[in-house]
Design brief:
It contains two helices and twelve strands, in the order αββββββαββββββ. It has 196 residues and is mostly beta strands. It has a single domain, classed as Lipocalin (Beta Barrel). The two termini are 37 Å apart. InterPro entries: Lipid/polyisoprenoid-bd_YceI, TTHA0802/YceI-like_sf.
């Protein structure tokens, strides 16, 4: 009987990390970043980020294909470090934040893409336009407990979009040829998750 009890205890102990890491996770905005970069004047990349966002990730460690992602970004929180440029990006010529206050991503399926990598397919809505997008994800990491007793996980994700596909068409031609703002935008996410 003692052997059986010990065996059951060992099995439960081994299973605990799995149970602890499954379920719903909230994005910890204090330790995450929603960033982007776009070509400027044909010579360099301008980087920026969105300072306000929220989201939940449902992770099913037994079947990652059942996992889900739902993120909402406050478009008016865009910042590139230059006030005049940020005001232009918020205007009707770009994001038109008064009319389109949020950017959203809602996943529709998740596929494994190698060791510790996933492809997350979903619907990205920007400027009132919804199109399919694919996030290349590294992670999620295993769950761990921080010094304050919170259960955390992390992941990184990237994707590229053409801003014109979302109605963000403003540009200015350069005298030397080319345009002021590139069409391809690289989105990069560094996400820390907090167990709900």
């Amino acid at each position: 009987m003692k052997t059986l009890v010990k065996s059951l205890a060992a099995i439960i102990t081994l299973a605990l990390p799995t149970f602890a890491s499954a379920g719903t996770w909230a994005i910890d905005t204090d330790h995450s970043n929603v960033g982007f970069k776009v070509r400027h004047m044909m010579v360099s990349n301008v980087k920026g980020e969105f300072a306000k966002y929220s989201g939940n990730v449902e992770i099913d460690d037994q079947d990652l294909a059942k996992s889900k992602v739902n993120v909402t970004i406050d478009t008016a929180s865009i910042t590139t470090g230059v006030t005049k440029r940020d005001e232009h990006l918020k205007s009707a010529e770009f994001f038109d934040v008064a009319k389109y206050p949020t950017i959203t991503f809602v996943s529709k399926k998740v596929k494994k893409a190698g060791a510790n990598h996933l492809k997350v397919y979903g619907f990205l809505t920007i400027h009132g336009v919804t199109r399919e997008a694919v996030l290349d994800v590294e992670g999620p990491t295993k769950a761990f407990k921080d010094p304050w007793g919170n259960i955390k996980r992390g992941a990184s994700a990237t994707t590229k979009i053409n801003r014109k596909d979302y109605g963000l068409t403003w540009n200015a031609a350069l005298e030397t040829g080319g345009v002021a703002v590139g069409e391809e935008v690289t989105i990069a996410l560094e996400i820390e998750l907090l167990k709900k």
